[in-house]
């Protein structure tokens, strides 16, 4: 370039970080450079390699089998397993649920729906449960239930408990809403199907205190007069007991 001449304008340098030298020095790797296969196995190790792959399989061959052949073999659950709910009965066949809705209020998943009814609305002094009220509608939605057991803790009459039944799958959503008939405990031998009057001379307190031990002859006669074809009559007639007296004994 002749002296005094001006330099032609230079194109702007790119402002990329790549063009600048990094202030951080490159890290140096310690030790010898890594090779692809530093220790090549010998011919015997190579020959045994496929067998070594089965080491875990061979080690488990002679251990006890833990596979459960469900549903062909059903393994019992632990005694306190939380399974399907059950609505229980008193020994004379009356239902324990009084339709108070406490279980529905306690449920964190809003899975229970209860509608109470008045025993006074039933004809001729009949009762579904002791006392004033009974559970007219009772539903549990097993699509919501998380089997926490809070509902059974809330129940004041121990009407609601949980069984060990865990087979709760179904093909429809509607079918997973269990109605009262699905949840009600079956009549045990000697129980008299309701509705029928309470044991003569008793209040609901005698039922809550466990003083009712079976149907009385008066209850059997009442049902025989109105429902002579009731399937529970014969067994209940053989299992009649005396009504408790005011002192906790029997009349
Ligand atoms: S077990 Fe828990 S989630 Fe299920 S109905 Fe009872 S309170 Fe609700
Ligand atoms: S199951 Fe128990 S808590 Fe629920 S409505 Fe019946 S009596 Fe009340």
CATH architectural designation of the domain at 85-183: 2-Layer Sandwich
Distance N to C terminus = 134 Å
Top CATH class of the domain at 85-183: Alpha Beta
Helix/strand/pairing category: alpha+beta
Shape: elongated
Number of strands: 5
- Share of helical residues: 10-25%
Low-confidence stretches: none
Strand order of the largest sheet: 2-3-5
- CATH fold descriptor of the domain at 85-183: Alpha-Beta Plaits
Rounded average pLDDT: 88
Question: Into which percentage range does the β-strand content fall?
Answer: 5-15%
Overall radius of gyration:
38 Å
| Total of helices | 8
Main location: membrane
Keywords: 4Fe-4S, Cell membrane, Iron, Iron-sulfur, Membrane, Metal-binding, NAD, Oxidoreductase, Quinone, Translocase, Ubiquinone
Catalytic activity: a quinone + NADH + 5 H(+)(in) = a quinol + NAD(+) + 4 H(+)(out)
GO molecular function, one term: oxidoreductase activity
């Amino acid at each position: 370039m002749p002296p005094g001449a001006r330099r032609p304008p230079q194109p702007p340098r790119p402002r990329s970080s790549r063009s600048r030298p990094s202030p951080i020095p490159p890290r140096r790797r310690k030790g010898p450079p890594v090779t692809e296969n530093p220790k090549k196995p010998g011919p015997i190790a190579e020959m045994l390699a496929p067998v070594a792959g089965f080491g875990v399989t061979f080690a488990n061959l002679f251990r006890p089998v833990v596979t459960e052949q469900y549903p062909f073999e059903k393994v019992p659950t632990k005694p306190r397993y939380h399974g399907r709910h059950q609505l229980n009965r008193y020994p004379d066949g009356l239902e324990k649920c009084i339709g108070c809705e406490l279980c529905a209020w306690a449920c964190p998943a809003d899975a229970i729906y209860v509608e109470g009814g008045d025993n006074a609305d039933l004809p001729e002094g009949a009762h579904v449960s002791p006392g004033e009220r009974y559970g007219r509608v009772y539903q549990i939605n097993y699509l919501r239930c998380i089997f926490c057991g809070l509902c059974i803790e809330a129940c004041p009459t121990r009407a609601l408990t949980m069984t060990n039944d865990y087979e709760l799958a179904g093909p429809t959503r509607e079918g997973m809403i269990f109605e009262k008939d699905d949840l009600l405990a079956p009549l045990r031998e000697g129980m008299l199907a309701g509705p029928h009057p309470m044991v003569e001379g008793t209040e609901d307190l005698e039922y809550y205190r466990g003083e009712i031990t079976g149907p009385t002859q008066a209850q059997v006669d009442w049902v025989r007069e109105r429902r002579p074809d009731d399937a529970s009559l014969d067994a209940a007639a053989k299992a009649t007991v005396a009504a408790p007296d005011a002192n906790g004994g029997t009349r």
